[in-house]
Amino acid sequence: MRGVACNAMNWHDYFTYDAETGDLIWKERPLKHFVDQRSCSIWNTRWSGKVAGNKRKDGYVFVTCDGKRELKHRIVWEMHKGAIPEGVEVDHRNRVRANSRIENLRLATSVQNKRNNTLRTDNQSGTTGVIWDNRKSKWRAYIGIGGNNKHVGYFDDEESAVMARVSAQKEHFGKFVRNSIR
Questions:
Q1: Which of 36, 79, 119, 126 has minimal Cβ neighbours within 10 Å of its Cβ?
Q2: What DSSP line would sit under 56-77, residue for residue?
Q3: Into how many domains does the chain fold?
């Protein structure tokens, strides 16, 4: 191929977007994207009209375009909303990394994006920010803010600790709050 690169300025030249599935579909590419007619014909026969992308082990889907890997959700965002500002990420509202429907995507800071993570697999209480404190023989609720843990309170029962944690989440994280209960 000649040095035509896939980028935010021309994603529509390469893909159509399926709003129902969130898939990117390869468009037929013109001769100017290739070294010769044979390469153009082979590529278009093999890929034109097919779903673009491959799923990684971590669940994200990437697309290889002109030798460069791009995350599908970032392409979808740029096709619909324009360039992604520096220092901003694209968050999947429902936490399903392969779901790149535009209504499932939103811009977020790194911290906001992390607030939308799933419950850690090593969590033992079933709720982020709720632990059993052996010293006090009570449930302790806390919330991470700005790299520090803020104490929410001690509680006699786990349910009260969970409710206090959820309330603190809503207060501090707004629309990026994720119900972190199993």
A1: 36
A2: -TTS-EEEEETTEEEEHHHHHH
A3: 2
Average pLDDT of the segment spanning 115-141: 80
Residue in the structure block whose two tokens are 């990684």: 56
pLDDT at 180 over 60: no
Residue 6 has pLDDT above 70, yes or no: no
Give the residue-averaged pLDDT of 115-143.
Answer: 81
- Looking at the structure, tell me whether residues 28 and 73 fall in a common domain: yes
Specify if 66 maps to a domain. Answer: yes
CA angle (110, 117, 60) in 5-degree steps? 80
Cα 71 from chain centroid?
A: 10
Residues whose CB falls within 8 Å of the CB of residue 150, separated by 6 or more in sequence, listed in order:
142, 143, 144, 168
Which pLDDT belongs to residue 8? 53
pLDDT at 2 over 50: no
Q: Print burial letters for 34-65: b (CB count within 10 Å at least 16), e (below 16).
A: beeeeebeebbeeeeeeebbeeeeeebbbbeb
Q: In the block, which residue shows the tokens 């491959």?
A: 54
Give backbone dihedrals phi and psi of 62, rounded to 5 degrees, phi first: -120, 155
Q: What is the mean pLDDT of residues 159-176?
A: 83
Residue 151 lies in a domain: yes
